[in-house]
Amino acid sequence: MSNTDSFIDEVTEEVRRDRLFLMLRRYGWIGAVAVAAIVGGTAVREYSRAQQEAAAQKLGDAMIAALEPAEAADRATALAEVTTDGVDGQMLVDMARAGSLVDAGDTQAAIPLYQTIGSNGDVPLVYRHIASFKALVLQSDTLSVDERRLQFNALAAPGAPLEYLAREQLALLEVESGDAEAAIALLRTLVDDANASVDVRDRANQLIVALGGERSAPSDHGG
Fold first, then answer.
1. Alpha carbons 221 and 199: distance in angstroms, whole number
2. d(CA 168, CA 186)
C-alpha cells in the first residue's frame, strides 16, 4: 500500500478523533494532497495533478513548520502567518490554529475562528459541524443552557455528521440543568440507537449509571 493510500485509510478515522494535523506531520505533503482531495471534491478536480501537488506541498510544508514549536502559543502564532489560496486550505490552517490556541489556553481567540469555519457555506459540511461543535463546547461558561441547546439541536439533526455527539451533549445539558430523568431518557435513546457507535453507547450507559439509573442492554446490531 502506498503512503497516499495509507494516509487516506487512516485519516477517515483520525478526523473523527481530531488528530488530522498530527497526520499531516506524519505524512508531510503527501498527506496534504490526500486531505485536499478528501475535502475539496469537485473543486480540486478542476486543477491539474501537478498544480494540486505543488500547492499541497507548499501548504503542507508551511503547516509542518508552523506545528513544530513545542509551545502551543508559538504554534498558533506561526500558523497565523501561513498563507494559502482556496477555502479548503484556509480551513485546515484555521482549524489547526484554533486547536493550538485552545491548547495555549486562549479559548476566546479560538472561538471566532471555529465560528467562521462553521458559518462558511463553502466549507464541507462535516468540517462546519466540527467547528461549530467545538465553538459551542468552548462557550459552556458564556452561553446559556437554552442557547446551547438550540444550537446542539441543529447539530443533532438525523443524519448530521455529529448527530450522536450532539445528542450526547443535549443529555449533558439536562444534567447541567438538574434534570437527571430527562438526561437518562435522552441517554437511553442513544443506547438503543442501532446506528450509534459502541463508544457513544458505552458512554451513555456509564452516565446513566452515574445518574442513578440502571444500565441498559444495547439492542443487537453491527455498530
1. 14
2. 8
Consecutive H or E run containing 48:
none
At CA 77, angle to CA 76 and CA 78, rounded to 5? 90
Residue 185 cell numbers, joined: 431518557
Q: Is 74 exposed, middle or buried (0-12, 13-18, 19+ CB in 10 A)?
A: middle
Long-range contacts of 166-172 (CB under 8 A, 24+ apart): 166/133, 168/200, 168/203, 168/204, 169/133, 169/136, 169/137, 171/204, 171/207, 172/207
Residue 72 one-letter amino acid = A
| Numbers of helices and strands, H then E, in the chain | 13, 0
Using only C-alpha atoms, what is the Rg of the chain?
A: 19
What is the C-alpha to C-alpha distance for residues 165 and 171, in angstroms, rounded to an integer?
10
Higher per-residue pLDDT: 55 or 80: 80
Could you report the per-residue pLDDT of 125-150, keeping only the tens digit for each? 999 999 999 999 999 999 999 999 99
3-state secondary structure of 107: helix
